[in-house]
Write a structure and sequence with these properties.
With 175 residues, the chain is of the alpha+beta class. 42% of the residues lie in helices and 18% in strands. The longest helix has 17 residues, at 67-83.
């Protein structure tokens, strides 16, 4: 399924924030020719329907996260988060399409009705080698520039990847 115009606008805004490596067409997951065609006609390139479960191929090609990667990560991190009162679930394109070119969308939610400790959540992710790239305030500022009134609590994290920048995880935090 191709990206919507709103999704394209969001990706372009993210790229212009300056934290993204590579060219804009690469960030959008398109070839130079697909990007030129979009600029000229406004027609959004069709997403490739091929999926991969090979992590090496996923990193070399356009796919950043696969369902296999997501399940492995969830199995590893779920017990750690449960220890500090949080559950975790999968959402987004990895869930619906089996892969993502950009990020992994996770939902974290409190396991009880009592006070939830977001500091413990952050400490746990950091102890696992994750780095906070954008807190929810930065995310909200970017959304406001795009005229969005969205108020979800979302943080952007990078996973630990030896000798390279980690893979992006968008964390949707329920209160």
């Amino acid at each position: 399924m191709p990206m919507t115009d709103d999704e394209i606008d969001d990706k372009i805004a993210e790229w212009h924030q300056g934290d993204s490596p590579g060219t804009l067409h690469e960030y959008l997951g398109w070839t130079r020719e697909e990007y030129a065609h979009w600029v000229k006609t406004g027609e959004v390139p069709k997403m490739k329907t091929e999926t991969t479960t090979d992590p090496e191929r996923a990193l070399k090609g356009r796919v950043v996260w696969t369902m296999r990667d997501a399940i492995r990560l969830l199995k590893d991190i779920d017990p750690l988060l449960r220890e500090v009162g949080w559950g975790v679930g999968l959402t987004g394109s990895v869930l619906t399409q089996g892969e993502s070119r950009n990020d992994l969308d996770l939902i974290v939610y409190p396991l009880n009705d009592g006070k939830v400790d977001r500091d413990k959540l952050r400490e746990t992710l950091e102890s696992w080698g994750w780095k906070l790239k954008h807190d929810h305030l930065v995310v909200h500022r970017a959304w406001r520039r795009l005229k969005s009134t969205d108020c979800k609590l979302v943080e952007v994290w990078l996973t630990y990847e030896p000798n390279k920048e980690g893979k992006r995880v968008d964390l949707f935090i329920l209160r």
